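Good morning,

Attaching, inline, the backbone tokens for the sequence recovery test we're adding to the shared suite. The designed sequence is right after.
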């Protein structure tokens, strides 16, 4: 079994929409069922230190982060703690409205609130545009989400390292819905579909993409980046 340890983080702890045990449990359930990971645990915003203590993050290889409304309530010290771990190699999967989270803003340096949105339950068609990428492995060329929240361009993010998915909506809007970034030693994947009103995380295509993303984002366990003043050591003269 792969030794990847996953933490699924959620801003809420109770039932929401079609998720009687919460979105965090719905995500954790299919990650566990995949059999690909060593441990999948849950951390919640209402917990002490938002459930993301030093010990939890230091033993997390990939953090899956779902959020929608309460970004401003996340303590800045915890945001910096997450950012340090990402720079040191921890993977970060940002779902749905986590584009507006403090951690995404911290790591991308942009105002990601600048997008169009509409919540009327319209159809979303998700197009896979990079078929050779590990995150898109086994995902069809496109799939339809019957009812979704619309996110539309312009999306205030830096150019992603890789654009893997684009979404089209019934109203005609399009959106860069699946993007990767690298920060320090860490890999980041933002994936937009997943509004809490609709049972989107029960869809097999969604589960496949998120499971693939967690495996892709796992750290390579290369030595950490070090810095600071170094002594000068004169090389010995060649004979």
């Amino acid at each position: 079994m792969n030794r990847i340890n996953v933490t699924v983080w959620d801003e809420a702890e109770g039932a929401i929409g079609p998720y009687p045990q919460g979105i965090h449990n719905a995500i954790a359930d299919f990650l566990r069922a995949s059999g690909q990971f060593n441990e999948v645990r849950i951390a919640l915003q209402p917990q002490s230190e938002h459930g993301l203590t030093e010990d939890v993050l230091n033993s997390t290889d990939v953090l899956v982060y779902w959020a929608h409304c309460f970004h401003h309530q996340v303590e800045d010290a915890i945001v910096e703690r997450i950012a340090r771990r990402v720079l040191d190699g921890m993977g970060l999967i940002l779902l749905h409205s986590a584009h507006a989270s403090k951690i995404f803003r911290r790591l991308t340096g942009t105002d990601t609130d600048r997008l169009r949105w509409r919540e009327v339950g319209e159809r979303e068609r998700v197009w896979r545009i990079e078929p050779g990428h590990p995150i898109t492995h086994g995902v069809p060329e496109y799939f339809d989400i019957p009812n979704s929240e619309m996110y539309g361009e312009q999306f205030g993010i830096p150019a992603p390292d890789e654009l893997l998915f684009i979404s089209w909506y019934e109203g005609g809007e399009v959106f860069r819905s699946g993007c990767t970034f690298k920060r320090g030693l860490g890999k980041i994947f933002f994936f937009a579909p997943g509004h809490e009103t609709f049972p989107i995380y029960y869809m097999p295509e969604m589960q496949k993409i998120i499971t693939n993303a967690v495996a892709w984002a796992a750290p390579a366990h290369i030595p950490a980046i070090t810095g600071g003043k170094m002594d000068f050591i004169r090389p010995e003269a060649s004979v």
